[in-house]
Structure formats: structure tokens, C-alpha cells
Design a protein that fits this description.
Blueprint lengths: L1 H8 L6 H66 L14 E5 L4 H12 L3 E6 L18 E5 L12 E4 L6 H6 L1 H22 L2 E7 L26 H21 L3 E6 L2 E2 L10 H10 L4 E4 L5 E3 L1 E2 H12 L7 E3 L4 E3 H12 L5 E4 L14 H7 L7 H21 L20
Parallel strand pairs: 1-2, 1-4, 2-3, 4-5, 5-6, 6-11, 7-10, 8-13
Antiparallel strand pairs: 9-12
Helix pairs in contact: 1-2, 3-8, 5-6, 7-9, 7-11, 9-11
The chain binds nicotinamide-adenine-dinucleotide.
Subunit structure: Homodimer and homotetramer. Interacts with AKT1.
Pathway: Nucleotide-sugar biosynthesis; UDP-alpha-D-xylose biosynthesis; UDP-alpha-D-xylose from UDP-alpha-D-glucuronate: step 1/1
Keywords: Decarboxylase, Glycoprotein, Golgi apparatus, Lyase, Membrane, NAD, Signal-anchor, Transmembrane, Transmembrane helix
Length: 426
């Protein structure tokens, strides 16, 4: 079109030379146009092939990815549903609570209660006797935090209340490393009191009936000063707790820190450590495994056991009360060790025999709390009957034994090593 337009446009173009040049130009222009069209077309063609390929690939990827997305959605759903239900507390009522030793037996039940009540709970534990499994059902919850930390080292966090439970509690555990037990109860308690002072938090100390030692009065009330052997095998724990109490009242008087002191008596329930070594867990495990139930001495020494949920309720009531002097928390229902052995044997339905061994050193002969003060000032008393509590503990230990049996690590036999060189006669 361009060429013919040129030929027709100017009369001088009819001369042959000029016409030749214009012919060449015409030819070149047509060639350029054809080449341009070709390049354009092949570009479009390539692009559509490429786009087609990309779409197919995208569709393929989508087909693979969609089921995975579905699985992630399901997992997320099950993840958010797995937490036990928690109450909603307004900003004003919700407290930031630290539980030292919160991955232990009592601490984990306290964690459950405070979480379900709607508070923000930080558990600090060095996992000496505690386990992540005890609080794993809260891991990931927005109100929960777990910190692996030793209270012998200072801790800097912001909290409103501190339940200071960190300390090994059973004789085999606290005797395992008496110096560490002393450090935990002295330096650890100083650190927590320092934290309480810094952030203006209230601190509750988990003290123990062991501060009464081998008591000369019966039952033991809070006024009794105790009968402790300061250099005996239990001293690291008994004296550690006694000085921890002293520290609380020094911080209260000198620094105005609000303190609460619970003198806890023997407690039992699910999540007690398998190697706890205390009477109830020993007897239950022995009965479940068909082993003899071992009684130290004649078995006439008495004990009174409270179920863990009663203790946890008592701790929370005490923390939120205005009672700053020590309070006994325990179940006054007293039984001889022999009676416990017989009862547990019956509840398990075990054929185990009862075996008498020589008396343990510094083993208190009598232990029974006087809980008049807790009743009067806190309106608290234990409510779970002994048999009901024991059945729950037995159920727990039975499941734990099954769990252990199913998760046992059985090492594969190693292939025999083939020695090079001389053969040996074995
Ligand atoms: N269970 C009872 O019968 C009983 C009786 C009297 C007093 N108490 C007191 O109650 C508290 C809890 O006892 P429990 O029976 O749950 O014992 P537990 O051994 O199950 O729990 C103690 C927890 O403290 C942790 N812990 C120990 N040393 C620590 C350290 N240095 N830093 C951080 N964490 C540390 C352990 O790992 C564990 O999780 C203890 O202070 C104990 O003295 C318990």
C-alpha cells in the first residue's frame, strides 16, 4: 500500500532511475513490514504457549497444595480446640501469676486451676523433678508461658503474684543433692522475694510440715516451733524451708513485701513423680506391679494425706486472703502407715504381701495437721475423701506404667564386630 501510494503521488516518480530507487525502498519497506508481523506473531504465539504452560503448572500445583492447606486448617482447628476451657477475666481481674516449680506435681495442678480461672500464668522450672508433660496441655495458649530457669539465678519479669513452689519435695529427691536443695530454698527464695519487692508482687511460699520436724506436740498447730535435727539427713530440706520462712518475714518487715506462708502437709494425686519415693506412690506402684509393699519400722507411725485439688484450692484462698502468718494446709484424717498399705492393696486388688524393713533415720512418728486456723480464717478445709483420691492416683499410676511399657526404648542388638587379622578362640 505504501509503495503504490508513493508511485501514484508524485509525477517525477515515473522516471526510470527514481522509480528503481523507490522500488528498492518499496521492497525494503514491505520486507520490514512482513518481518515485523512475523516477529510479532511468533512473540504472541510463544507467549500464549508459555501462558498455557504456566496455567497448567499452576493448576497442577494447586491440585497438590489444596489438600495440604486443608490438612493445615484441620490441624489448626484441633490445635486451638485442645486447651481445657478457660474463663474470661477482664483486664482489672486478670492477674499475671508466676509459679516457680510449676511443672512439678503440685505446681502443675495449680497451673491448671489458675489458667482455668482466666489468669495469665508463667511457669518457671528447671525440670529437676518436674516435667514438661505435666503442663504440655497449655503450651501455646496465649495466657501461658513456660520458662526453663533455675530460681538460684535471678529472674526479671513483671508479675502480680508469685507462688514460690520450686524445691525438690520428696526425701530421695532433696537428699540427692543437699547443697542444691539448700541453695534452692535459700538463694532461690531470696531471688523470688527480691523480684516480689521490685515489682510489688505478693509472694506465697510453699513451706512444709517438715518445719515441725519430729514433733513433740500432736496435732501440730502453727504456734508450735518444731523439733528439727539441724544436721540430720533431712536438714537440707527442713532447715532450708525454715530459713525460707524467716526470709519471707524479714522482707515483709523490712521491705513491706506482702507474703503468705502455707505449711503443706503430705499431699498425693496424679502427676506425682514415679520415683517420688513417698509412701502413697511407693505403695501404689508396688501394689500395681505385684511387688511387696515395704513398710519401714512397725508401720504404727501415722500420716495424714490430702488430695492435691484440696491443697490447690487452699493455696489460692490463702494467696488472696489477708492472712500473712503461716497457715497449715493438710488433711487431719490420720492413719497408720500399715492401714495405708492395706487400703491401697485392697483398692488396687493386688495380691502383694506387706514387708517390714528397718526404721528410716529421723522418720517422724506422728504427723497430723491442726487446721483450725485455715478453717477459721480462710473458710477452707479438705473435701475429697481418701478413697476417692486414692482411686484417682491409682488410675494415674496404672496409665503411667502402661505408657512406660509402650514407650520403652529397646536397643537393637549390635551387629557383631568383625576383627581383621588373627582369629580368636572365644
Ligand atoms: N507434695 C507434698 O506432699 C508437699 C508437702 C510439703 C511441701 N511441699 C512443697 O510444695 C512444693 C511443690 O512440691 P511437689 O510435691 O510438687 O514437688 P515436685 O518435686 O513435684 O515439684 C517441685 C518442682 O520444683 C522444680 N524445681 C526444683 N528446684 C528448682 C530450681 N532450683 N529452680 C527451678 N525449679 C526447681 C522441680 O523441677 C519441680 O518441678 C515444694 O516446695 C515442696 O517443698 C510439698
Amino acid at each position: 500500500v505504501t509503495g503504490s501510494a508513493l508511485l501514484n503521488a508524485e509525477p517525477q516518480m515515473r522516471y526510470p532511475k527514481i522509480r528503481g530507487i523507490y522500488g528498492i525502498i518499496l521492497f525494503l519497506l514491505s520486507l520490514t513490514a512482513v518481518w515485523g508481523n512475523y516477529v510479532n506473531m511468533s512473540f504472541l504465539l510463544n507467549r500464549s504457549i508459555q501462558e498455557n504452560g504456566e496455567m497448567k503448572l499452576e493448576r497442577k500445583i494447586e491440585e497438590i497444595v489444596e489438600p495440604l492447606r486443608e490438612k493445615i486448617r484441620d490441624l489448626e482447628k484441633s490445635f486451638t480446640q485442645k486447651y481445657p476451657p478457660v474463663k474470661f477475666l477482664s483486664e482489672k481481674d486478670r492477674k499475671r501469676i508466676l509459679i516457680t516449680g510449676g511443672a512439678g506435681f503440685v505446681g502443675s495442678h495449680l497451673t491448671d486451676k489458675l489458667m482455668m480461672d482466666g489468669h495469665e500464668v508463667t511457669v518457671v522450672d528447671n525440670f529437676f523433678t518436674g516435667r514438661k508433660r505435666n503442663v504440655e496441655h497449655w503450651i501455646g495458649h496465649e495466657n501461658f508461658e513456660l520458662i526453663n530457669h533455675d530460681v538460684v539465678e535471678p529472674l526479671y519479669i513483671e508479675v502480680d503474684q508469685i507462688y514460690h513452689l520450686a524445691s525438690p519435695a520428696s526425701p530421695p529427691n532433696y537428699m540427692y543433692n543437699p547443697i542444691k536443695t539448700l541453695k534452692t530454698n535459700t538463694i532461690g527464695t531470696l531471688n523470688m522475694l527480691g523480684l516480689a519487692k521490685r515489682v510489688g508482687a505478693r509472694l506465697l511460699l510453699a513451706s512444709t510440715s517438715e518445719v515441725y520436724g519430729d514433733p513433740e506436740v500432736h496435732p501440730q498447730s502453727e504456734e508450735y516451733w518444731g523439733h528439727v535435727n539441724p544436721i540430720g539427713p533431712r536438714a537440707c530440706y527442713d532447715e532450708g524451708k525454715r530459713v525460707a520462712e524467716t526470709m519471707c518475714y524479714a522482707y515483709m518487715k523490712q521491705e513491706g513485701v506482702e507474703v503468705r506462708v502455707a505449711r503443706i502437709f503430705n499431699t498425693f494425686g496424679p502427676r506425682m513423680h514415679m520415683n517420688d519415693g513417698r509412701v502413697v506412690s511407693n505403695f501404689i506402684l508396688q501394689a500395681l506391679q505385684g511387688e511387696p509393699l515395704t513398710v519401714y519400722g512397725s508401720g504404727s507411725q501415722t500420716r495424714a494425706f490430702q488430695y492435691v485439688s484440696d491443697l490447690v484450692n487452699g493455696l489460692v484462698v490463702l494467696m488472696n486472703s489477708n492472712v500473712s502468718s503461716p497457715v497449715n494446709l493438710g488433711n487431719p484424717e490420720e492413719h497408720t502407715i500399715l492401714e495405708f498399705a492395706q487400703l491401697i492393696k485392697d483398692l488396687v486388688g493386688s495380691g502383694s504381701e506387706i514387708q517390714f524393713l528397718s526404721e528410716a533415720q529421723d522418720d517422724p512418728q506422728k504427723r497430723k495437721p491442726d487446721i483450725k486456723k485455715a478453717k477459721l480464717m480462710l473458710g477452707w478445709e479438705p473435701v475429697v475423701p481418701l478413697e476417692e483420691g486414692l482411686n484417682k492416683a491409682i488410675h494415674y499410676f496404672r496409665k503411667e506404667l502402661e505408657y512406660q511399657a509402650n514407650n520403652q526404648y529397646i536397643p537393637k542388638p549390635k551387629p557383631a564386630r568383625i576383627k581383621k587379622g588373627r582369629t580368636r578362640h572365644n
